[in-house]
Amino acid sequence: MNNLFIEYPKCTTCQKAKKWLNDNNVKFEVRHIVENTPTVQELEKWIKLSKKEIKKWFNTSGLKYKELNLKEKLPNMTDKEKIELLASNGMLIKRPLLITKDTVLIGFKEDEWEVTLKNKFKFSSHI
Q1: CA separation (Å) from 56 to 93, 120, 127?
Q2: Are 17 and 108 spatial neighbours (Cβ–Cβ below 8 Å)?
Q3: Do the beta carbons of residue 98 and residue 21 sit within 8 Å?
Q4: pLDDT, tens only, 42-101
Q5: Rg of the chain (C-alpha set)
Q6: Per-residue pLDDT tens for 22-45?
Q7: Which of 18, 30, 37, 94 is the most exposed place for a label (fewest CB within 10 A)?
Q8: 3-state DSSP call for residue 59?
Q9: CATH class for the region spanning 4-117
Q10: Cα separation, 60 vs 91, whole angstroms
Q11: Which of 59, 64, 60, 62 shows the shortest CA–CA distance to 94?
Q12: pLDDT score at 119
Protein backbone atom coordinates (compact mmCIF):
# COMPACT_ATOMS: atom_id res chain seq x y z
CA MET A 1 0.00 0.00 0.00
CA ASN A 2 1.22 3.46 -0.84
CA ASN A 3 1.11 6.16 1.81
CA LEU A 4 -2.14 8.08 1.69
CA PHE A 5 -2.20 11.79 2.49
CA ILE A 6 -5.73 13.06 3.10
CA GLU A 7 -6.04 16.80 2.97
CA TYR A 8 -8.21 19.84 2.45
CA PRO A 9 -6.06 21.74 -0.08
CA LYS A 10 -6.93 25.21 1.25
CA CYS A 11 -5.87 24.25 4.78
CA THR A 12 -2.50 25.82 5.65
CA THR A 13 -1.66 23.00 8.06
CA CYS A 14 -2.22 20.50 5.23
CA GLN A 15 0.01 22.58 2.96
CA LYS A 16 2.79 22.60 5.60
CA ALA A 17 2.47 18.84 6.09
CA LYS A 18 2.60 18.17 2.34
CA LYS A 19 5.69 20.37 1.98
CA TRP A 20 7.31 18.55 4.91
CA LEU A 21 6.60 15.14 3.31
CA ASN A 22 8.02 16.33 -0.02
CA ASP A 23 11.08 17.89 1.66
CA ASN A 24 11.73 14.53 3.35
CA ASN A 25 11.17 12.50 0.17
CA VAL A 26 8.19 10.62 1.57
CA LYS A 27 6.10 9.32 -1.31
CA PHE A 28 2.33 9.55 -1.02
CA GLU A 29 -0.96 9.67 -2.87
CA VAL A 30 -3.24 12.65 -2.25
CA ARG A 31 -6.93 12.46 -1.45
CA HIS A 32 -9.30 15.39 -0.96
CA ILE A 33 -11.07 14.97 2.38
CA VAL A 34 -14.33 16.60 1.21
CA GLU A 35 -14.55 15.28 -2.36
CA ASN A 36 -13.62 11.77 -1.21
CA THR A 37 -14.56 11.61 2.48
CA PRO A 38 -13.33 8.54 4.34
CA THR A 39 -15.96 5.83 4.70
CA VAL A 40 -17.20 4.32 7.94
CA GLN A 41 -15.15 1.19 7.18
CA GLU A 42 -11.97 3.18 6.50
CA LEU A 43 -12.45 5.25 9.65
CA GLU A 44 -13.04 2.16 11.81
CA LYS A 45 -9.80 0.64 10.51
CA TRP A 46 -7.76 3.84 10.76
CA ILE A 47 -9.02 4.84 14.21
CA LYS A 48 -7.97 1.44 15.53
CA LEU A 49 -4.58 1.75 13.81
CA SER A 50 -4.04 5.28 15.15
CA LYS A 51 -4.52 4.13 18.77
CA LYS A 52 -6.24 7.47 19.42
CA GLU A 53 -9.66 8.10 20.91
CA ILE A 54 -12.39 8.85 18.38
CA LYS A 55 -12.81 12.35 19.83
CA LYS A 56 -9.25 13.15 18.67
CA TRP A 57 -10.46 12.63 15.09
CA PHE A 58 -12.81 15.60 15.21
CA ASN A 59 -11.80 18.98 13.78
CA THR A 60 -12.81 20.86 16.93
CA SER A 61 -11.81 24.25 15.48
CA GLY A 62 -13.98 23.79 12.39
CA LEU A 63 -17.14 25.74 11.68
CA LYS A 64 -19.20 22.57 11.13
CA TYR A 65 -18.14 21.18 14.53
CA LYS A 66 -19.29 24.38 16.22
CA GLU A 67 -22.43 24.70 14.09
CA LEU A 68 -23.54 21.20 15.14
CA ASN A 69 -22.70 21.92 18.80
CA LEU A 70 -20.63 18.74 18.94
CA LYS A 71 -18.79 19.74 22.11
CA GLU A 72 -22.08 19.14 23.91
CA LYS A 73 -23.32 16.20 21.81
CA LEU A 74 -20.23 13.95 21.45
CA PRO A 75 -20.10 12.78 25.10
CA ASN A 76 -23.59 11.29 24.71
CA MET A 77 -22.94 9.56 21.38
CA THR A 78 -21.83 5.98 20.84
CA ASP A 79 -18.58 5.25 19.00
CA LYS A 80 -20.62 3.99 16.06
CA GLU A 81 -22.58 7.26 15.91
CA LYS A 82 -19.36 9.30 16.10
CA ILE A 83 -17.77 7.36 13.24
CA GLU A 84 -20.91 7.68 11.12
CA LEU A 85 -20.92 11.42 11.79
CA LEU A 86 -17.26 11.74 10.76
CA ALA A 87 -17.96 9.81 7.56
CA SER A 88 -20.88 12.11 6.75
CA ASN A 89 -18.78 15.25 6.30
CA GLY A 90 -15.05 15.50 5.63
CA MET A 91 -14.92 18.93 7.26
CA LEU A 92 -15.60 17.29 10.63
CA ILE A 93 -12.38 15.24 10.42
CA LYS A 94 -9.15 16.62 11.83
CA ARG A 95 -6.64 17.02 9.05
CA PRO A 96 -4.33 16.23 7.50
CA LEU A 97 -4.23 12.47 7.81
CA LEU A 98 -1.28 10.33 6.81
CA ILE A 99 -2.00 6.65 6.50
CA THR A 100 0.86 4.20 6.04
CA LYS A 101 0.56 0.43 6.10
CA ASP A 102 0.90 0.35 9.90
CA THR A 103 0.53 3.94 11.14
CA VAL A 104 -2.06 6.70 11.05
CA LEU A 105 -1.10 10.28 11.91
CA ILE A 106 -3.84 12.84 12.58
CA GLY A 107 -3.16 16.56 12.29
CA PHE A 108 0.34 17.83 11.61
CA LYS A 109 2.81 18.09 14.45
CA GLU A 110 6.22 18.08 12.82
CA ASP A 111 8.05 16.53 15.79
CA GLU A 112 5.50 13.71 16.08
CA TRP A 113 5.63 13.00 12.36
CA GLU A 114 9.42 13.03 12.38
CA VAL A 115 9.73 10.65 15.33
CA THR A 116 7.06 8.31 13.95
CA LEU A 117 8.29 8.26 10.36
CA LYS A 118 12.07 8.51 10.63
CA ASN A 119 12.48 4.74 10.97
CA LYS A 120 10.04 4.00 8.13
CA PHE A 121 11.60 6.31 5.56
CA LYS A 122 15.13 7.41 4.88
CA PHE A 123 15.43 11.04 5.82
CA SER A 124 17.64 12.98 8.17
CA SER A 125 16.11 13.82 11.47
CA HIS A 126 16.14 17.42 12.70
CA ILE A 127 15.50 16.41 16.31
Answers
A1: 9, 24, 25
A2: yes
A3: yes
A4: 999 999 999 999 999 999 999 999 999 999 999 999 999 999 999 999 999 999 999 999
A5: 15
A6: 999 899 999 999 999 999 999 999
A7: 30
A8: coil
A9: alpha beta
A10: 10
A11: 59
A12: 73
CA distances from 47 to 10, 83, 122 (A): 24, 9, 26
Q: Are 59 and 33 in contact (CB under 8 A)?
A: no
Query: Terminus-to-terminus CA distance in the chain, angstroms?
Result: 28
Q: Where are the domains of the chain?
A: 4-117
Q: How confident is the model at residue 122 (pLDDT cuts 50, 70, 90)?
A: low
Rounded-to-integer distance, Cα 110 and Cα 92, Å = 22
Q: Model-level pTM?
A: 0.91
Q: Where are the beta strands (DSSP E) in 27-100?
A: 29-32, 97-99
